[in-house]
UniProtKB/TrEMBL annotation:
It holds the Pfam family DUF7075. Residues 335-625 form the DUF7075 domain. Residues 266-286 are annotated as: Disordered. It comes from the Eukaryota. It comes from Urochloa decumbens. This is O-fucosyltransferase family protein. Residues 173-264 form the DUF7074 domain. PANTHER family: EXPRESSED PROTEIN (PTHR31469:SF2), OS07G0633600 PROTEIN (PTHR31469). Residues 270-283 have a biased composition (Basic residues).
Length: 645
């Protein structure tokens, strides 16, 4: 049989010439056989292959290093890192890095906008001084009217001292907070001198305090000096404080007697509301009376001109302390809704997973919507995994509690899912709006690019991991869809707590991350951890790294904080729970989040604790990690340390 088949398939000679038709037929059969074999081999491999968790293999090595670097959680027994967001991503790629800060802030990074110095305030004040005040001081003439000189005749003597004249001074006269330029300069100088570890970028006009004639409230925008010249972090902060003033009884000049605590000057807090209609994008009212040095204004004008010339949009400024406008976007009219193009993800395996897992998939959806030039229809109800809740059960939470929705809706086109379905129900049939439906993750964004339907709906099944949103951005899509990290920032309400904690330590503190808990008890995987994180060992390790008497912020999962009492004799130790008044029932955070949740009280949950604890730790002038600085043990157990360590 085989011999006959071979003979039948071989090309024959006819009249001394090769039968080309038979040769082509034989070649085609051979190629088809190879194709069938390749398909069978591929099918077999696909059947037995188990894909890796996409979270463990991000798009690039640089992104992998970024997401897995730095600090791990200091709140839970499991050592799971908090996923950084857009404002941290820019900082992590700066050339300065943390090393500059640890080297005594010697490597200065040129800033896009210069900060305000004492000399700037003085030079601005001198511009308003009359020419007569700048003249050389004259010799003072003191008149002695002592009755002991006889009949009271005046005896004139010449001295080289300033003129001292009898001044009629009403020490209780109200101060003019808003109109006195000299007072404005005094308050600015006092702030700069009082907080040497901060860089100031803008001062608001002072505001009078009702019922307190000798007090003024003053606001300013600032950055820690360590951020500006060490880490490259681009976050700005806003503070407003109350200044208590007195008058010198001899000269009647105003003197700053004391400065209030963080955010004590509530009169200077601007609400930052927008002019536009509710939910519509609009510009903030420009502060026309703020103090900005001339050189700073020149730099701002240059940056604006360069952006306009290049057709670029100015980088958004992340300012912690400004009022948050995270109202839901609203479509203005039926015609505007009908002209729009939308993308929605339904279902998916991200629900109730870790917050990191959710963000990884959400950014994929946001990236696809951006690629397709469509509005992302997003569900603002986030399922918080039970590991983060006090009940231990999965609970629905508002997306805006964890992320800066105001920045997201200004940077990307998004709409709330409930609002979208309400509008869709009103106008879909009337305006004959169509939707395109797909359940196949192999339907790539490139294939959807030409879809003209109003709505593209991706439905994800129940089989993991193929129902992960992040699978859409894998394979050939990986080089096309870019996750827009810069659209996603941490909640400014949480960052406000970070700012308040840092301010209470005057932004001049060191930090240490101490992992204990189950790892310290497992001597097989971590044989040295318990001993290396004992108070005695900590004192020895910190001795040549942290100066005595300094604030030391301790991020730890050790439940018994008295464990660290031996450190109190040398350092001013602080823990996250030392500042729990910042999220207590009478706090600004509690009030705002309750209003955001329609009158329902919000728990300061485990993920919030991890986020705040980590952010405060990272703002220490010197921060020490457990597995890099305190112990020789490996983070994931024996024999798991990187080869380079």
């Amino acid at each position: 049989m085989l011999g006959r088949a071979a003979g039948m398939s071989a090309p024959r000679w006819r009249g001394g010439s090769l039968d080309l038709r038979a040769a082509l037929r034989s070649g085609g059969n051979l190629l088809f056989a190879l194709f069938v074999a390749a398909v069978l081999a591929f099918t077999l491999l696909a059947a037995v292959h188990s894909p890796d968790d996409p979270l463990l293999h991000p798009s690039s090595h640089q992104l992998t290093d970024f997401l897995t670097s730095s600090t791990s959680t200091s709140t839970f027994l499991t050592d799971d890192s908090v996923l950084r967001t857009g404002e941290d991503f820019n900082a992590s790629t700066s050339s300065g890095g943390i090393g500059a800060a640890e080297a005594g802030f010697e490597a200065e990074i040129k800033e896009a906008v210069p900060f305000i110095k004492l000399s700037d305030v003085a030079s601005e004040a001198e511009k308003t001084e009359p020419a007569a005040e700048k003249a050389e001081p004259e010799l003072a003439v003191t008149v002695d009217t002592d009755v002991g000189t006889g009949d009271g005749a005046a005896v004139a003597t010449t001295e080289e001292t300033p003129v001292t004249e009898a001044v009629s001074c009403d020490t209780e006269a109200p101060v003019d907070c808003t109109g006195d330029r000299d007072l404005f300069n005094l308050l600015m100088r006092s702030a700069i001198e009082r907080f040497p570890d901060l860089h100031f970028y803008r001062f608001g006009r002072p505001v009078a305090v009702p019922g307190s004639p000798m007090e003024c409230d003053l606001a300013w925008r600032f950055r820690p000096a360590a951020d500006a010249i060490g880490t490259g972090r681009t976050t700005y902060y806003k503070d407003y404080r109350r200044f208590m003033l007195t008058r010198d009884v001899n000269t009647c000049t105003l003197v700053v007697d004391s400065v209030g605590e963080y955010h004590s000057g509530v009169g200077a807090k601007r609400n930052g509301k927008r002019k536009g209609k509710k939910g519509k994008k609009g510009k903030r009212e420009a502060p026309v009376t703020d103090f900005v040095p001339a050189k700073t204004q020149v730099r701002l004008d240059e940056n604006t001109a360069n952006n306009e010339a290049a057709g670029a949009v100015a980088e958004p400024v992340f300012v912690v302390g400004e009022a948050v406008n995270d109202s839901l976007p609203v479509v203005a009219s039926e015609s505007e809704f009908s002209r729009g193009k939308y993308l929605i993800y339904m279902g998916g395996g991200e629900r109730c997973k870790s917050m990191n897992h959710f963000i990884w998939g959400f950014l994929c959806a946001l990236g696809e919507a951006q690629f397709l030039n469509r509005t992302l229809v997003m569900d603002l109800n986030v399922c918080l995994n039970g590991r983060y809740t006090s009940s231990g059960k999965d609970e629905d939470r508002d997306f805006r509690l964890y992320f800066d929705f105001e920045h997201l809706k200004e940077s990307a086109s998004v709409i709330d899912q409930s609002q979208f379905w309400q509008d869709w129900g009103k106008w879909q049939k009337k305006d004959r709006l169509k939707n395109f439906y797909t359940e196949d993750i192999r339907m790539t964004p490139m294939k959807l690019k030409d879809i003209k339907d109003t709505l593209i709906m991706r439905k994800f099944g129940n089989v993991e991991p193929d129902n992960y949103w992040s699978r859409v951005c894998e394979g050939q899509t990986e080089g096309v869809i870019k996750r827009p990290w810069h659209f996603l920032w941490k909640s400014r309400r949480l960052m406000e707590i970070v700012s308040a904690i840092s301010s209470r330590m005057n932004w001049d503190f060191d930090s240490v991350h101490v992992v204990r808990g189950e790892k310290a008890q497992n001597t097989q995987l971590w044989p040295n951890l318990d001993r290396d994180t004992s108070p005695e060992s900590l004192l020895m390790t910190l001795n040549d790294k942290v100066g005595a008497g300094r604030y030391l912020y301790i991020a730890t999962n050790e439940p018994d904080k008295s464990f660290f009492d031996p450190l109190n004799g040398k350092y001013k130790t602080r823990f996250l729970d030392d500042f729990n008044d910042l999220w207590a029932e009478n706090s600004e955070w509690f009030t705002e989040t309750k209003e955001l949740s329609n009158g329902k009280s919000v728990e300061f949950d485990g993920y919030m604790r991890v986020a705040v604890d980590t952010e405060v730790f990272l703002r220490g002038k010197r921060h020490l990690e457990t597995f890099n600085d305190l112990t020789r043990d490996c983070k994931d157990g024996v024999n798991t340390c990187p080869a380079s360590s």
